Amino acid sequence: MKQSAGMREGDIAQIKVSLLNVELAIWRRLEVPPEITLARLHVALQAAMGWQDYHLHAFRIREIEYGVPNPDYEPMGVPLKDDRRTTLRSLVSVDESFVYEYDFGDGWEHEILVEAVLAPRPRTRYPRVVDGARACPPEDVGGTPGYVAFLDAVADPRHAEHASVLDWAGGSFDPEAFDIDAANRELDIRFR
């Protein structure tokens, strides 16, 4: 395993998570302990992005896939490495990036870039979201093409599916909205 330059136990890793293959940038910046397992990082990403953890996930780091081992999902016949036994610090260093995929049907890929190593702040809970932009697409919207069609229907009150799409989305959807406090409350719920 790769020894991570500059990330020591007790440090905090600043990561930027960017949803790929969408026109407008949807991203979050998190601070996490480098000792976090990839399984716990998955939980943090779900909370930060606004996903509901309804689907399978995998991390791709240097052409190796990590996730929950599942005999029904083995990319090219190769089983996933167990993400519950692998830490962020053991695999990546500052300025390195890797891919997190959520929902293999919709195929939401996220680039995760390790931006910096920070000293922990006193009386601060980690992981935490420190910045971000735009709402995450709704679950099961149909990947990038479905999200584009969804946004078209939401934006146009004369669109034939406008009312039904809004109803499906819970009554409203603002693609520009990102509530950092709500994301951190969700992190608190999932990590405490």
Which key phrases capture this entry?
alpha+beta; Structural Genomics Hypothetical 15.5 Kd Protein In mrcA-pckA Intergenic Region, Chain A; 2 domains; 8 strands
The helix-strand sequence is EEHEEEEEEHHH
Number of domains: 2
Query: Helix coverage percent of residues?
Result: 10-25%
Calculate Rg over CA atoms: 17 Å
Instruction: Classify the beta-strand content into a percent band.
Output: 25-35%
The helix-and-strand class reads alpha+beta
Our measurement of the CA-to-CA distance between the termini, rounded to an integer number of angstroms, reads: 30 Å
| CATH fold type of the largest domain | Structural Genomics Hypothetical 15.5 Kd Protein In mrcA-pckA Intergenic Region, Chain A
Number of strands: 8
Which homologous superfamily in CATH is the superfamily of the largest domain?
Answer: MM3350-like
Q: Strand sequence of the main sheet, in spatial order?
A: 5-4-3-6-7-1-2-8
How many helices? The count is 4
Description:
- This protein has 192 residues and is an alpha+beta fold.
- It has two domains: 12-134 and 179-191, MM3350-like (Structural Genomics Hypothetical 15.5 Kd Protein In mrcA-pckA Intergenic Region, Chain A, Roll), CATH 3.10.290; 136-175, no CATH class.
- Helix content is 23%, strand content 25%.
- It is built from four helices and eight strands.
- It has helices spanning 38-49, 143-155, 162-168, 180-191; strands at residues 12-19, 27-32, 57-61, 64-67, 81-82, 97-102, 108-118, 128-133.
- The protein has an eight-stranded mixed beta sheet with strand order 5-4-3-6-7-1-2-8.
- It is globular, with a radius of gyration of 17 Å.
- The two termini are 30 Å apart.
